[in-house]
Amino acid sequence: MTADKPLMELSHVSRRYGGGEQPTLEVLRDVSLELRSGETLAVVGPSGCGKSTLLNIVGALDRPDGGSVCLAGRDIASLGEAELADVRARRIGFVFQLHHLLPQCTIWENVLVPTLAVRQDPTELVDRAARLLGRMGLSTRLHHRPAELSGGERQRAAVVRALINRPDLLLADEPTGSLDRQSSQTLADLLVELNREEGVALVVVTHSPALAARMEHVLELRDGELVEPE
Amino acid sequence: MMSPWRLILRSLAYYWRTHAGVLLGSAVAAAVLTGALLVGDAVRGSLREMALARLGRTHLALSAPGRLFRAGLAGDLTRRARVEVVPVLALHATAGEGPTRANDVQVLGVTGEFWGLAADAERTGREFRAPLQGDEVLLNDALADRLNARPGDEVLLRIEQPSLLPRDAPLSGGQRASIGRRFRVRGIVRPDDLGRFDLRATPIARYNAFLPLASLGDLAGQPGKANLLLIGADAAGLKLDALDDALKTVWNLEDAGLKLRNVPGGIELDSQRVFLEGPDQRAARQAGENPTGLLTYLVNSIRKGDKATPYSMAAAVGSLGDAVAATRPADTRPAASLAAALPANLRDDEILIHPWLAEDLDAKAGDTLTLTYFVLGEGRQIKEQSREFRVRSVLDQASPLLDPTLMPEFPGIAAAESCRDWNVDLPIEYSRVRVKDEQYWSRYRGTPKAIVSLAAGRDMWANRFGDLTAVRFAAPAGPAALRERIRSHLAPAELGLAFQDVRTPALAATAQADFAGLFLGFSFFLIAAALILTGLLFALGVQQRSTEMGTLLAVGLGRSRVRRLLLGEGAALALAAGVIGLAGGVLYTWALLGGLGTIWSGAIGGNRVAFHVQGSTLGIAFGVSVAVALATVALVVWRQARKSPARLLSGDVGEALYESPRSGKASRHGGQVRRRGGRFAPALAVLCLMAAGGLLGALGASAGPQRAGAFFGAGALLLTALICLAWTVLGRLGGAKDPAPLRLGLLALRNASRRRGRSLAVIALLACGTFLVAAVGANRHDPTAHAELKSSGTGGFAYYGQTAFGVAHDLTASGGQKPFGLTAADLAGAELVQMRLREGDDASCLTLSRARRPRIQGVRPEALAGRFSFAATLDPPPASDPWALLNTVTSDGAVPAVADEATIVWAMGKKLGDTLEYAGAAGGTFRVRLVGSLKNSILQGSLIVSERNFLRLFPSQEGYRVFLLGASERDGPRADVDKVAERLAFAMSDAGLEIASARDRLAAFSAVENTYLSIFLILGALGLLLGSAALALVVLRNVMERRNELALLRAVGWRRAAIRRLILREHAGLLLAGLGGGALAGVVAVLPAALAAGGEFPWLSLPLTLLAVAASGLLWTWLAVHLALRGPLLDALRTE
User: Fold this and answer.
1) Which candidate, B613, B677, B824, B737, places its Cα nearest to that of B38?
2) Does B551 contact A at CB distance below 8 Å?
3) How far apart (Å, rounded) are the C-alpha atoms in residues A99 and A172?
4) What is the pTM of this model?
5) Are A56 and B552 a contacting pair at CB < 8 A?
6) For residue B11, what is the nearest residue in chain A, using CA coordinates?
7) CA atoms within 13 A on the CB side of B1097
8) Which of B440, B434, B435, B441 is nearest to B418 (CA)?
9) Among residues B328, B285, B279, which one has the least CA distance to residue B490?
10) Are B757 and B675 in contact (CB under 8 A)?
11) Are B7 and A102 within 8 A, CB to CB?
């Protein structure tokens, strides 16, 4: 990691499930992490180890039980509901294992859904959407519905949706998990290229060693702790 | 560009299948709600039409029952007030003969101006202004239909002979109450031509016959008279005070029923009613002519020792000056020669006698004479009384006191040729009349044979009609001045001659008919069921899109933004549903009105309700429908969107899918919070159970509606407790258990608890529906059950009769049957209770509009002792009998009245303790206080007061009109009441007696309530059907969501039939829990009704209904399971 001020900083984060009469399961234990702008990080680990939980906490989709999560110097764990939404809208982009594109909308509309949360110059927005979709090879699929696209195309559209609001941090949860090898490779290439082109920091949670290998840093989540992979 | 609207539209289009269900559910709710409101419009509109049909353009009316004035008064008033005043002579009549005979016909003597009061005055005028020939009559459509008469046919009308002296007044003379005559029907008067003219609000069109005013007056023996003045809508701006002032200016003594005549020594004021009323007397005294009061009466005998003179006139004479002496000029000695002839100090026990009498009895000054005379007691019982007098002197033959004009014009006496021709309606023994008595009559006519002081006379002969028969004046200024002075001291309003606005209250009463509220109540469950279904469908749709919500949240849309987007979809659906609901509501209204016109006609007592719709109602219906649907959707959206984005993205769609009820959702920092309802539901259940117990403990043993209310309340609380319990149990079932063998039943229970919101919605829907069906169903009652009991709604009477004309006689008194050609033997073994009747609004539940001035019936309370059942009384009833409440004297002078509970609550919108204000017969107003309510009875529609109070309030109201007939419970043989009724109907046909079975009357009233209950039950059953449809949806949705799990079961070796059994068992549990819980609570709620006499607990129909709903629910469930499990289940695993 560089010596610059970190974009994202997790400090002693913990997260438990259960409680009361149920046995407690500690998914994250004293997790600390820093990530600077433009850096890429892969988090690997076995199923159920808490990778997605970590990503949700980083992405302000979930809250830690302990510790702090700072994004661009703000502790997002202390933010209210509306402020968290604003953080997600302006600073974070998400790519899920399942694309989660809205089936009722076209690809063009889907990538513009996040813009509903952020007021922007329409002309610039249209240019950016068109450029990103072209960059992803989806220029001919703008008015297709997700159901009319291949898995790889849907996932690429999801990447455009994640980048449309110029986030500082792109979080990808098993982005290639439901893709075939070719599509996985294409997507991995695109993610890395976009990281460079857009200057966006990238955190990928993955089982795929190939994808992990494309990242600058790789950490393994083991027994609730982030460690260097063996 | 992307916009929220675009997203909403896309979603609406994409999820149209899901939304179609939501739309349908909301549209059903909107249609039912709209329909209920439109039924209100229809009833109001129809009532308004009916009110306008009976009033035409009539705005003001002066109606003076029991009085007659000059028809020319209308013309005088027209000129004075510059508004057209229409005179009418309205009399009672019967029409036709045989089975089609119509009683209670109103025959209207009208002039051409009357038709100008029709809505389309010009058209109606053209049609009916042509004068009728002497034997022609116009009938309204209702009467023509009843008589099956067409133009050219001949009909018999028997018309009342109005008498200014009520026929039950002493010496009123005979029973010539009606005169029959045949007429040829000239035409039929339609409703819009004022054919249904009626000042009273009645549920059914009145039978009307129209004759020329002059002809009817001649026929009725009252030429040139009218008893009704009408003013059309042109008078809307006219002030009543101004009109009354104008009336006071133009009326004269004749209009007040008074006349002045020259008599020896002065001028006499007497009344066409024979007895001068209070206002007449006061005006006479204030006229300042030093008047002398006279009270002349027929005495049965004047006896001295063993000598007696039969049937003589006796007069009481005295000055009236005392009371107002201070206001008069100096001369206070009675100036009339009559008074001058009285000894100055005639004592009240002294008598002056005619020389003829002195000779007949061999009496002289100082002798004691006994006067025997009849007085009328309560219930027109004739009692003979006597009083002794000492002869003060024998009058000189030339004494002014021996004046034949002292006898007023008693109708049955004045014109008689001989004593034997007297027709005084008293038990006179004509055999006692001697030749010398006839000679006296022939020579001296009504010259009194005895004179007593006015005080003594009043003491003996005063009655409710008055205590003077004439007032004499010296009248030095002449009759014209005297006439004007009397007139100036008499106000028309004091005699009940005052205009009233009849239009505004009539139209207001139609507006008060809250049928919209009633049908909203009836449709409540259906609306609730449709809304629950709407909510369920929308929730299912939203749950299906949980990842979408998660995505929107994840990409930075705020929670409220996401809610607004979903709400936007819901709003669009609600708006569309509102529009569809309006159309559906119109159809629903047509269906309801169709029902009310046919199978449910009992609910509106035969009234015709036509479709009416107001734009404002549609607007309200639309607004409320949309708001209600939107609120339902908002609730769902609010619940769904409060989940965390991570949970939504993980596809967690249900409230308990991935967590046990004991686990919690994440707190702000990941801590655990208890699930809502975790402790609240059981606590509420316990609270409800305790409240139910407390309610039953406190009021369960009370009587009447309190007890019923307590049980209903307890039932409702039990229902709430059971629903809370179901929520809790569903939660417990989902919790972790110690390791135990897994059984199919346990698995089914676990599954049922997974979506406990859905499961609870189904249970609650079915339970509420069942509760209502059970609770309402048990309130149906068979009115004829135990109708023979005195405590029943018939009061133990077998027949209820009503005459068109007042019957002056007490048929139960000795000789009272004679005028009808009956004997005491004809009524032997039967019990007859007679009631007086003051016409007014029909306040039975057959009337749809609000009754403002209900009819009043007067009865001797002791005649009803032990009969009927009181629902409640204002004060604790006297130990003797609740009916004795009618005899109580209130501190504020209000007259105590008892009425049927339905009359009080529904027809009048009142409660016990409330008072109603009536116009008094002699001006002013009086108040009637409701002190008791009767359970469903044949007395519905009227206020019952004591006969004593009735006569005090309406002294001029003539005779009895309501007759209750039953078998006597006294010792002796019981009468065949049917035969007695038959005899009475025949004998009293000229009085227009219409006698009907008391059971039938009660059944007709009960039909209203029972029909309403039927409507409620049918709409409730529709709600239950929707409930079972909701169950099917839940099954379908649950199974579809769990298809992969079921596939897994299949993969591990479960047979398809076992899977089906599992799902059926899990949903049958919900069905049975709903039905069982609702039925249990319902049974508790209706225990009093079930155990009450006449109660008709649906022992058969309720279980059958529940079985039908259970069967329907199981069928839906089976179908849903069948549909969901179609096709190869294992594919679900492969597509996982």
Assistant:
1) B613
2) yes
3) 10
4) 0.72
5) no
6) A104
7) 15
8) B441
9) B279
10) no
11) yes
Query: Of A135-149, B566-580, B690-704, which gets the smallest average pLDDT?
Result: B690-704
* Range name among A183-192, B919-928, B1107-1116 with the lowest pLDDT average: B919-928
Angle CA B621–B624–B625, to nearest 5: 80
ipTM over 0.85: yes
CA dihedral B146, B152, B157, B159 (to 10 degrees): 120
Q: Element (H or E) spanning B178, and its range? A: strand B178-189
Minimum Cα–Cα distance from B646: chain A residue: A61
Q: What pLDDT, on a 0 to 100 scale, did the predictor assign at position B657?
A: 32
Smallest Cα distance from A66 to chain B, Å: 7
Nearest to B482 by CA among B242, B318, B263: B263
Chain B environment of A61 (Cβ under 8 Å): 553-554, 644-646, 649
The dihedral over CA atoms of B858, B864, B867, B869, expressed in degrees to the nearest 10, equals: 40
Q: Which DSSP helix (H) or strand (E) runs through B228?
A: strand B228-231
State mean pLDDT over B76-91: 92
- Which residues does B1109 contact at the CB level (< 8 Å), separation at least 6? B766, B769, B770, B1024, B1025, B1027, B1028, B1075
Rounded to whole angstroms, the Cα distance separating B433 from B360 reads 13
Which of A62, A65, A126 shows the shortest C-beta gap to B671?
A65
Output b/e per residue, B217-241; b: 16+ Cβ within 10 A. Answer: bbbbebebbbbbbbbbeebeebeee
For the record, the structure tokens of B640 come out as 């769904």
- What distance in Å separates the CA atoms of residue B1034 and residue B1074, rounded to the nearest whole number? 14
Residue of B nearest to A116 (CA): B3
Residue B591 burial by Cβ neighbours in a 10 Å radius (0-12, 13-18, 19+): exposed
Kindly report the nearest CA distance between residue B779 and chain A, in angstroms.
Answer: 49
Contact A20 B7 (CB under 8 A): no
Mark out the alpha helices in B302-434 (DSSP H runs).
337-341, 355-361
For tokens 């919108």, what's the residue?
B909
Question: Contact, B317 vs B338, CB < 8 A?
Answer: yes
Q: Do B649 and A118 touch (CB under 8 A)?
A: no
* Residue B15 touches partner A, C-beta closer than 8 Å: yes
Phi/psi of residue A196, nearest 5 degrees: -75, -50
Mutation target for B interface from A116, A125, A128: give the one with most B CBs within 10 A. Answer: A116
Does B679 touch chain A if contact means CB atoms closer than 8 Å? no
Compare CB distances from A102 to B548, B645, B669 and report the shortest one's residue: B548
Q: Which amino acid is at B281?
A: Q
The shortest CB-CB distance from A16 to any of B15, B559, B670 is to: B670
Q: Which of B551, B659, B675 to mutate: most A Cβ within 10 Å?
A: B551
Per-residue pLDDT, B668: 37
Q: Could you give the angle at which helices B1056-1085 and B756-777 cross, rounded to 10 degrees?
A: 40
Instruction: Tell me whether residues B2 and A109 touch, CB distance under 8 A.
Output: yes
Q: What CA–CA distance (Å, rounded) separates A27 from B189?
A: 92
pLDDT tens digits, one per residue of B1068-1096: 888 888 888 888 888 777 776 666 555 55
B558 touches chain A (CB under 8 A): yes
For B434, residues 6+ apart whose C-beta sits below 8 A from its C-beta are: B310
Q: How far is A184 from chain B (nearest CA, A)?
A: 20
Exposed/middle/buried for residue B529 (C-beta within 10 Å: 0-12, 13-18, 19+): buried
**CB proximity B11 to A under 8 Å:** yes
Under the banding of pLDDT at 50, 70 and 90, the label for residue B656 is: very low
Which residues in chain B touch residue A125, judged by CB atoms under 8 angstroms apart?
1
